[in-house]
């Protein structure tokens, strides 16, 4: 507690939206990953109710036993088509998807090359795999090239977030793929924060960069922009077959409730038709960056819905977050070990469900506190 690092939970008493109730008090929230505002969408609520009426509350077993329903199958087909990959496999969470994919695809004698700012799930996955680990400086293509040029036996797997969850910046995916092609390596892309938001019709970071390669193993989550729950890996059929048989976090866990898959089938349609939502999100992003450009705390470089305001000191970040909360605005303070020492920040996240007035209120409060 003395270091300003103690983490505590708070209890929401309302659906996820920009305007929430926490511990009995109303707040304007800028800390959800519900980027398109779909988490409380009436169509998804209706679809989940229909799914529960048809399939019940739970799957009851693992996919490889008797828990794999038609709803799961239809969603996997739809997701593979949506991200232009041959096949897809559902996982319970993005954390489990990363753990399962890396552990199944590499092991002793193989090498993983990882960005130093990758999500904790990718870090844990590479350690669990027992492969040799080589970490490169954040988005440092030159250092990664040097590491890949050293002679190695076994498989090579480059893993990176597409959108880095705490900085909001993009990985240089075209350059990463070029290195993978040059050095005969696979590339695992974690698009948790790009799926639904980036690319044509929200098809994600691969679509944003117009990338298509059988070397790419694509992971995205379904509880952020998609508004529901779960994750999937999309790749060549041989990769998916390998995961079905060897990814422990898929094989040895109960399937997600089929009602979630019914809701997600509708979510994909809303994402595909959501150009207006994404355009509104970009307007809010421009408004925020313009309104905060002259603050003594600086926004980190980001063109995504994740807008980190760099504070530095842990206690100062907590105090600023608490001061906003006293004004009815909720923005999370992010501190080590989630981010490096000395880079504590407010992680401002925008949603298409926010209004310009919401952003104006946040800008005004931060300017008032800066004075």
Structure write-up:
This protein has 371 residues and is α/β, with parallel strands linked by helices. It has two domains: 115 residues, Aspartate Aminotransferase, domain 1 (Alpha-Beta Complex); 231 residues, Aspartate Aminotransferase, domain 2 (3-Layer(aba) Sandwich), CATH 3.40.640.10. The chain is built from 14 helices and 14 strands. The strands form three sheets. Strands 3-9-8-7-6-4-5 form a seven-stranded mixed beta sheet, with helices on both faces. Helix 7 links the parallel strand 6 and strand 7. Helix 4 packs across helix 9 and helix 12 packs parallel to helix 14. It is globular and about 60 Å long.
* CATH superfamily caption of the largest domain: Type I PLP-dependent aspartate aminotransferase-like (Major domain)
As a percent range, the share of helical residues equals: 40-55%
Overall form = globular
**Major beta sheet, strand line-up:** 3-9-8-7-6-4-5
| CATH architecture label of the largest domain | 3-Layer(aba) Sandwich
User: How many structural domains in the coordinates?
Assistant: 2
Q: Runs with pLDDT <50, length 5+?
A: none
What top-tier CATH class of the largest domain fits best? Alpha Beta
Q: What is the chain-wise order of helices and strands?
A: EEHHHEHEHEHEHEHEEHHHHEEHEEEH
In what range is the share of β-strand residues?
15-25%
Radius of gyration: 21 Å
Average pLDDT score? 96
Query: For the terminal residues, how far apart are their CA atoms?
Result: 27 Å
Number of β-strand runs: 14
Enumerate how many helices there are, as a single number.
14
């Amino acid at each position: 507690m003395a270091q300003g690092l103690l983490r505590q939970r708070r209890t929401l008493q309302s659906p996820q939206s920009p305007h929430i109730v926490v511990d009995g008090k109303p707040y304007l929230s800028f800390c959800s990953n519900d980027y398109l505002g779909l988490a409380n969408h009436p169509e998804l609520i209706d679809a989940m109710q229909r799914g529960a009426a048809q399939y019940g509350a739970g799957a009851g077993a693992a996919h490889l036993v008797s828990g794999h329903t038609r709803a799961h199958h239809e969603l996997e087909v739809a997701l593979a088509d949506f991200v232009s990959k041959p096949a897809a496999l559902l996982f319970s969470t993005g954390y489990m998807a990363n753990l399962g994919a890396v552990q199944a695809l590499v092991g002793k004698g193989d090498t993983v090359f990882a960005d130093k700012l990758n999500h904790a799930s990718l870090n844990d996955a590479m350690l669990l795999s027992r492969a040799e680990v080589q970490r490169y400086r954040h988005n440092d293509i030159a250092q990664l090239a040097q590491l890949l040029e050293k002679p190695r036996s076994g498989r090579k797997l480059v893993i990176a977030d597409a959108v880095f969850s705490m900085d909001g910046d993009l990985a240089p995916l075209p350059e990463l793929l070029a290195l993978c092609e040059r050095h005969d390596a696979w590339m695992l892309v974690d698009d948790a924060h790009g799926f639904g938001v980036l690319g044509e019709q929200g098809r994600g970071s691969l679509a944003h960069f117009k990338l298509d390669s059988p070397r790419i193993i694509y992971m995205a989550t379904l509880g952020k922009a998609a508004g529901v729950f779960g994750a999937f890996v999309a790749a060549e059929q041989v990769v998916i077959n390998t995961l079905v048989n060897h990814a422990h976090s898929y094989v040895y866990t109960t399937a997600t409730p089929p009602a979630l898959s019914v809701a997600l089938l509708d979510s994909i349609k809303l994402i595909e038709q959501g150009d207006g939502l994404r355009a509104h999100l970009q307007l809010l992003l421009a408004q925020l960056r313009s309104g905060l450009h002259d603050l003594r705390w600086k926004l980190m470089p980001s063109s995504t819905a994740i807008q980190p305001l760099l504070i530095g000191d842990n206690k100062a970040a907590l105090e600023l977050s608490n001061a906003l909360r006293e004004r009815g605005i909720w923005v999370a303070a992010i501190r080590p070990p989630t981010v490096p020492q000395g880079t504590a920040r407010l992680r401002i996240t925008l949603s298409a469900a926010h209004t310009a007035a919401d952003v104006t209120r946040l800008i005004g409060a931060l300017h008032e506190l800066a004075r």
